[in-house]
């Protein structure tokens, strides 16, 4: 079972705001229905073998949101030097909302499909959360101080993307391609709708201007 990672920031600064990335219950469930506390005794941990685990959805249903989350991370990175608050907001919305469950699911599938050992999967999942939380923390510092985002933010972002790519590398290529095709199709549909809305808005403005110029009767 892949446990919940701890925040990769100084203990004195472990505020809940750094640990809430991707923690929405709207995300797909993965893992056990009960998590034993780290200090649980051997008898309690022994019970975990009897705890029924949630049935995972097909792997492709997790890969798509993770691919979209990667795109969103790249977009957030482009805001780093402009608006730290906006970049932080992007880490908590869209595909990154609920990313915890999707990442854990990829980790579990990598073990089930013999693409990674349990410890390797645990390390990949943990590394992703530590990297994204460190990225968020540097953004928080910039937001709080009102200064430019430190160069470390870019390094943490690259660490986040790198660990995400290593986790995606455990997924069979055919499944990644299938999920990518679906993501591209959805994005194309969104772009088409946005273009139609923009065209309709422009036409409405032109009509308003023409009516304003028309002689009054």
UniProtKB/TrEMBL annotation:
Keyword flag Thylakoid: yes
Keywords annotated in UniProt: Thylakoid
Domain DUF7880: start-end pairs: 58-181
Protein's UniProt keywords contain Transmembrane helix: no
Gene3D superfamilies noted in UniProt: Oxygen-evolving enhancer protein 3 (PsbQ), four-helix up-down bundle
Pfam short name (any one): DUF7880
Name of this chain's protein: DUF7880 domain-containing protein
